[in-house]
């Protein structure tokens, strides 16, 4: 009934074995899943894998350290030299008392433009001076054991050259000394650039003229080395400087910058940084001097130009003044107006005086005719006092006196009275004098009026010319004022600039001069070794992880117990006393050996499992061949027989019989001949070196072993053997290859499943679990065979604890030789 079912199971097992993966889940009649999901991280397995990978881990770490050492050995170290500069400008104009005179816009700035200084340092100006002063155009090298080294400043020879062909640039030219006075050169890139020459001899080669001169480092030892040199063009040197020279702003507030240079030669890096500091300082001073000179030159040019403009403007204005006889037309206009007003006032006054004189003459005549003396002439005419004529005033006074006197006499005397006549004659005389004086005064006044009118005419003509002269003067004053202002401003600027130049000093300080670096910045030994060791450790841990993930074999009882519900009877250690081609009975030769005690522990556990039965049928099977099924069968049978029980071993692996080989007997007849009734059971029983132990070999290989096992004759044979033996142990075929073993396991009282440490895959244990569920093998037991480590069998069912948890501690009389160092190392790598 189980032939088809077992055939299907056999196919599933074969698929699991061949593919190395878990076979498809088989189900029982109830549809229950065949396997449960695996657990999480198995720390014991991980520990075992880590222990077995320990040597690989150490080797990988050592490999990482070796790789780091090789990297350091074959990598040229890079050195970095650093200097720190402080760049600032401070004004001292205020210290000398001139700070307040400078315009705010022209006052020196407190901080400099550091970005501009960085660009100056990394400019062609600096690079050119570095090329010229440091001799960077020729590089000298010496060939070492592994690497070449640059001989900057310490080369035993010096090359003076003239390049005629640009192809010579950047070519490696080898040089070797053949004698104290001669040398040879060669160049792979330029075929004609080779030959032997004398030191100091000028050599003319295709594209190159050169002279090789010895230096103070030239010695006998130096002549033995191999040298080469390269001639570099400006572009290459500039690229080299641009690549390795770094200028960084450290602190904008403190005006500090850092100059660094990286190179394979520490001395070269230091010298270049110091030279950069020197060249930069010189360039900065020259730049300031050049800026000052350009500024002063510009100011002088502008002063000259404006002086000429000012001179021309002054000449034009001077011609205008000479022509117009005035320096200020506007003030002259005001003066002319004032003069005109004064002339008008004088003219008015003269006119009034003329009217007064006319009134006086009229009144004098009228007073003479009317003889009216009610009032005097002087009293009658207002403004008469304004006429500044003392004679006229005297005459008028005399006239007034005579008139009053005449008026008085006329009241007392008759007109014919002598006194009256004398007074009339005198009055007539006075009137004539007054008349004459008035005529003179009127004529003088007319002359003044005529002169005043003439002056008014001249002034009016002059006033008509003033607007044109004012316009021309304004036109001439504008360029004059502009030229004067510009000239004054430029003179002031020049004075201010000279004051600033005198009061402002460049503050250039080297805070940290470049020193020769003692240790390279790359590669850093500590970091390289750390990376190498960490890389080795990482690869080692990766190996442990990979081996753990790829670990698909059973290695310990803990792992076996976690993988199956079958009882673990015990652990059989590795038998390494001798190398056996086939399984053999060894417990009789070494009854106190570790392997004998391990099998005794299994025997004791079997007694606990089947203590109620006196007759027992034990089947021993495995998944595939090579797991130690036959070895466990014969030695377990020997241990049981040595306890006094009668034991017989049946070899039912009729396709590949091995039991007869284990006992060193023939396989002419056996199980196959019994089942076909060719021989009886007694005829096929063979004896062993142990009296209570006997066996029946498989016999000739039949074409149908499964059918023979299913025949009634097989049950009859077992019944016959029960009569004479206490224990029947059957060595069955591997259940992973054929189904014969499953048929026998169903009949057995105690089916034992052999799992070999580090050989049997975890899928085999799943196969065992599947067989237990499918065939209801509730008493299925398992044994871990060929365990090599203490951790694999450090405890057991009444075995490990009872004997101290290990072997080789002096308790057992195990004659096996201790493993050699090579064997121990081999086990670590296994």
From TrEMBL:
KW tRNA processing (keyword) present: no
rRNA processing as UniProt keyword: no
Reactions this protein catalyses: L-tyrosyl-[protein] + ATP = O-phospho-L-tyrosyl-[protein] + ADP + H(+)
Residues of the AAA domain: 616-745
Enzyme Commission number(s): 2.7.10.2
Top-rank lineage group of the source organism: Bacteria
Similarity comment: family membership: Belongs to the CpsD/CapB family.
NCBIfam families: eps_fam
Protein name as catalogued: non-specific protein-tyrosine kinase
């Amino acid at each position: 009934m189980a032939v088809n079912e077992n055939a299907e199971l056999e196919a599933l097992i074969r698929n699991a074995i061949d593919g190395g993966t878990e076979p498809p889940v088989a189900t029982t009649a109830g549809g229950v899943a065949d396997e449960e999901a695996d657990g999480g991280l198995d720390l014991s397995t991980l520990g075992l894998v880590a222990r077995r990978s320990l040597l690989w881990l150490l080797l990988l770490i050592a490999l990482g350290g070796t790789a780091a050492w090789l990297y350091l050995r074959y990598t040229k170290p890079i050195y970095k030299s650093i200097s720190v500069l402080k760049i600032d400008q401070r004004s001292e104009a205020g210290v000398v008392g001139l700070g307040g005179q400078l315009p705010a816009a022209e006052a020196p700035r407190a901080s400099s433009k550091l970005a501009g200084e960085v660009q100056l340092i990394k400019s062609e100006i600096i690079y050119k001076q570095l090329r010229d002063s440091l001799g960077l155009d020729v590089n000298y090298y010496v060939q070492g054991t592994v690497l070449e080294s640059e001989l900057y400043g310490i080369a035993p020879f010096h090359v003076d050259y003239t390049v005629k062909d640009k192809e010579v640039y950047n070519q490696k030219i080898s040089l070797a000394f053949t004698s104290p006075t001669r040398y040879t050169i060669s160049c792979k890139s330029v075929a004609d650039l080779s030959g032997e020459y004398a030191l100091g001899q000028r050599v003319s080669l295709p594209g190159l003229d050169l002279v090789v001169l010895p230096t103070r480092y030239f010695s006998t030892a130096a002549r033995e080395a191999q040298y080469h040199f390269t001639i570099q063009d400006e572009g290459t040197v500039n690229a080299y400087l641009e690549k390795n020279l770094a200028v960084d702003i450290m602190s904008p507030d403190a005006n500090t910058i850092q100059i660094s240079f990286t190179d394979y030669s520490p001395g070269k890096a230091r010298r270049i940084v110091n030279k950069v500091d020197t060249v930069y300082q010189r360039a900065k001073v020259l730049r300031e001097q050049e800026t000052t000179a350009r500024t002063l030159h510009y100011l002088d040019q502008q002063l000259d130009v404006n002086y000429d403009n000012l001179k021309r403007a002054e000449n034009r204005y001077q011609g205008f003044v000479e022509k117009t006889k005035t320096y200020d037309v506007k003030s002259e206009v005001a003066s002319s107006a004032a003069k005109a007003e004064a002339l008008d006032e004088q003219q008015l006054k003269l006119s009034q005086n003329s009217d007064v004189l006319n009134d006086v003459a009229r009144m004098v005549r009228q007073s003479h005719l009317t003889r009216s003396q009610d009032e005097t002439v002087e009293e009658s005419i207002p403004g008469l006092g304004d006429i500044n004529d003392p004679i006229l005033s005297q005459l008028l006074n005399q006239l007034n006196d005579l008139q009053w006197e005449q008026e008085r006499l006329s009241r007392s005397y008759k007109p014919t009275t002598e006194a009256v006549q004398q007074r009339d004659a005198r009055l007539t005389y006075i009137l004539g004098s007054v008349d004459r004086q008035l005529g003179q005064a009127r004529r003088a006044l007319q002359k003044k009026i005529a002169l005043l009118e003439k002056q008014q005419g001249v002034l009016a003509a002059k006033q008509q010319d003033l607007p044109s002269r004012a316009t021309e003067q304004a036109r001439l004053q504008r360029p004059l004022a502009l030229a004067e202002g510009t000239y004054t401003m430029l003179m002031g600027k020049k004075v201010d600039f000279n004051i600033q130049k005198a009061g402002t000093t460049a503050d250039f300080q080297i805070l940290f001069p470049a020193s020769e670096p003692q240790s390279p910045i790359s590669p850093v030994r500590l970091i390289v070794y750390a990376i190498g060791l960490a890389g080795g450790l990482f690869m080692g841990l990766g190996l442990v992880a990979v081996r753990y993930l790829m670990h698909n074999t059973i290695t310990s009882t803990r792992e076996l117990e976690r993988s199956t519900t079958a009882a673990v009877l015990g652990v059989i250690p590795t038998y390494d006393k001798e190398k056996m081609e086939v399984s053999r009975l060894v417990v009789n030769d070494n009854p106190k050996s570790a392997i004998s005690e391990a099998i005794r522990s299994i025997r004791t556990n079997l007694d606990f499992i089947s203590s109620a039965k006196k007759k027992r049928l034990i089947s021993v099977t495995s998944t595939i061949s090579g797991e130690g099924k036959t070895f466990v069968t014969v030695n377990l049978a020997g241990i049981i027989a040595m306890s006094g029980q009668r034991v017989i071993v049946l070899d039912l692996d009729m396709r590949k019989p091995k039991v007869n080989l284990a006992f060193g007997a023939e396989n002419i007849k056996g199980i196959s001949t019994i089942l076909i009734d060719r021989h009886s059971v007694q005829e096929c029983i063979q004896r062993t070196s142990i009296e209570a132990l006997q066996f029946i070999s498989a016999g000739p290989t039949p074409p149908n072993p499964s059918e023979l096992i299913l025949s009634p004759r097989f049950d009859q044979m077992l019944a016959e053997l029960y009569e004479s033996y206490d224990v029947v142990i059957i060595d069955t075929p591997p259940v992973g290859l054929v189904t014969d073993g499953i048929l026998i396991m169903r009949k057995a009282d105690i089916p034992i499943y052999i799992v070999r440490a580090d050989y049997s895959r975890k899928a085999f244990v799943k196969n065992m679990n599947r067989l237990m569920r499918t065939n209801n093998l509730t008493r299925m037991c398992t044994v871990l065979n060929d365990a090599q480590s203490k951790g694999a069998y450090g405890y057991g069912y009444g075995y490990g604890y009872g004997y101290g948890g290990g072997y080789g501690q002096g308790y057992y009389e195990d004659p096996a030789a201790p493993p050699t160092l090579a064997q121990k190392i081999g086990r670590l790598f296994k």
